[in-house]
Amino acid sequence: MQYKKHLILSGSSIKSALFLLDNLGKDAILFVVDKDNKLIASLTDGDIRRGLIKGSSIDEEIDSISQKQPKYLKKGDNDIQKVIGYRNDMLKIVPVLDEFGRIVDIVNFGRNRSYLPLDAVIMAGGKGMRLRPLTENTPKPLLMVGDKPIIEHNIGRLSLYGIKTLFISVNYLGEQIEDYFKDGSELNISIKYLYENMPLGTIGAVSQIEKFNHSNILITNSDLLTNIDYEDFFLDFIKQDADFSVVSIPYNVNVPYAVLETNENSVISFKEKPTFTYYSNGGIYLIKKELLKSIPQNTMYNATDLMEKLIKEGAKVITYPLLGYWLDIGSHEEFKKAQIEYEHIKF
Questions:
Q1: pLDDT, tens digit, for every residue of 336-346?
Q2: What gap in Å lies between CA 94 and CA 39, rounded to an integer?
């Protein structure tokens, strides 16, 4: 609801606009709306200054000095290039309109890096057995890393890229997660909860979701600490026209001996102490919405099961090699590592 601070009713006085702009501080821009919150114009202190110079009075209505063709975004619009264009043009705050032209949100590029047309599902139903006794009375996603629970770091990163509609799949001690975040309104996002009556794997709970707002869905594990650039991940997904993309993590294997390449006992070549790079599943996925219909109801089902099915059916399944920071917090050793590295990694 924070966007409402930027709204002013058509016909209001210039004096009242000055008070509102002053309260907004560095985010000083107003959007002129009608009684139904439909966007009419925009107004800045610069517009008021120019109006006063031309002879306007502070008791006059704002409509005579406001900008009648403001830039805006449409909610649910998949045109990410428009978002990038506004950001590159140094626009600081852009309103988001619904299908009727009403302002329902704003994008503040001083606080948001992007505004991605994605819904997100966070899988947070695991018991965290390897982290006992820390998880005996606390679900693993609520264990603290720095000053926040693990899952809050993930939610904050999604919100940073403008992803506002979240579903959280919970099971073990899930009521604690819901009590902590509630409906998400305090974080200016929307959260709905998927309760697993039985373990449903790493993607099975997604079958409970009846309606998404967007055509592409991001699914992530809740116990990851990462500085992934979600916009770059999404742009790669769109550019390659993929059906399914999985974040992959490079894993190097160092062989301490010379490795021989042979053919029927003949040595063809050899490499001295080579390093082989493999890519492991990073637990973060982008999927076209319609493909999620393949997930069976009330059944243990993993993201790798869906990936294997799509590959067999000839869908375009790609990998996104992550070059940034990534840590799966699944053990005491990794939990301690997260505490140390969080203070030094740029998120």
A1: 999 999 988 87
A2: 11
